[in-house]
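MODEL INPUT / OUTPUT PAIR
PAIR INDEX: 1
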Amino acid sequence: MQQKKSSKFYLIFFLFLSLILTNLLFVNCGGSRTASNSNTNNGDSLQNISSLDGTWVQDFCSSQGGQSNKNVQILNQIDNKSITLNVDVLAYFNSNCGGSGNLVGSSSYGTIVFSSTAIDGVGNYFRGTWTSPTSTTKIIYALKNSTTLCIIGDIEPTVFPSSASITDQVNLMVSQNICYKKI
C-alpha cells in the first residue's frame, strides 16, 4: 500500500513539475504588445484572490496505452493573500479523456503567498511565491476570465514585467490547451 501511495505522489509531482517546466520553456515565446491600462495592487489586501478558490481541471489530455488523464488543481483560500495547493489527477479509461474520469487522490503541494495583483481589460494576474514540499518558486496565476486559469512559472527578477507580457503568455498557453477550467 505504501508503494502505491508513493508512486501516486511521484506521478502527480512529476505531472505538475512538467507543467511548470513547460511554462518556463515557453517563457520568452509569444508576441509583443504595448503596455495596457492596468491596475496593480501590492500589499496586505489583494484584489479578487477569492476568484482562485475552487477546483480547476487542465485542458490538456495526456494519453498512453489506452488510458488518459488530466491534471487537477484544488485551491483553497487561507486568508486575503494566500492559498493552499492540492494536486490530483483525473484518470480516464480511454485514450482521449472522454466521458467521466476518476480522481486518483489529491496530495498537498504547499502554499502560495501572493505579493501583488494586476487587473487589466484581459484578466487578473496574481504574482506570488509557491512553497512546495521540496522548494520555493516564483509563480503567476493568471485568471483570463472567471473560468480559465493559466499557471506561469517565473523567476526573480521576473521575465513578465507587465500585464501585457503576462497576457501574451496566457494567450500562448490557451492556444496550447495547457490552462485550467474551473469546475
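PAIR INDEX: 2
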Amino acid sequence: MILRISILFLILGLLTQCEKQTPVTGGTFVPGTTTANGTGDLRTAFSDDWDHWDYYIDSISGEFRTVFSNDWDNWNISTGNLTLNMRTVFSEDWDNWQLSSSGQSISLRTTFSEDWDNWELKDYTANQTYSIRTAFPDDFDNWRVYRNGTLVMELRTDFSDDYDNWYIRNYGVTNNVHKACLLFVPVFISAIHQQGLTN
C-alpha cells in the first residue's frame, strides 16, 4: 500500500513539472520569446497549410507563401520590410533555387541531385556560404546550419514528425535575408515531404 502511494506521488510530481505547449491556433501566429541566444518560431499559418508559413526570429517576423496555391516552384518571402522571391531555376527542378531581389545574388541548391538532406546557400554579393543539413540521414525534422564549419543555427520540430511547428536557435546568422533563405529549406522540404513528393 505504501509503495502504491509513493508511486502515485512520484507520478503526480512528474506531471506537475511538464511544460505546457502552446498550440497552433487557426491562422494566428504567436511569436516565441526572443532571448539573447536568438531563439524563434517557424509555423504554418494554419495546421497543415504547407504553402503559407510565419516565422519570428531575433525580433524579426516574416512569412513564406507560394505565389500560387500548391505551386512549389515559386515562393514570396517577406522578412522585416523586404519582400523577396525564391524560385526554381527550371520548372520543378527543386534542388536548384535562385533568390531575386535588388542588390542580392543568392543561390540555394542541394549538394547532389535530389539529396534533400544536404543543401548549400551561396550569397555571391556578400561572399558567404552556408551548409544546411539534417542531423541524421532522412531526419527532416532536425536541421543544422554551418558557416565555415561552425554551427550557426539549429532548427527542429516541436515534436517528432510535427512538420508545421518548428523551434529555431540562432547562434550567429546576422543577415536577415540569409536567415529567411536558411529557414526556407525546412519550409520547402516539409511541404513536399508531407505530400510524399520526396520519395
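PAIR 2 NOTE: The chain has two helices and twelve strands.
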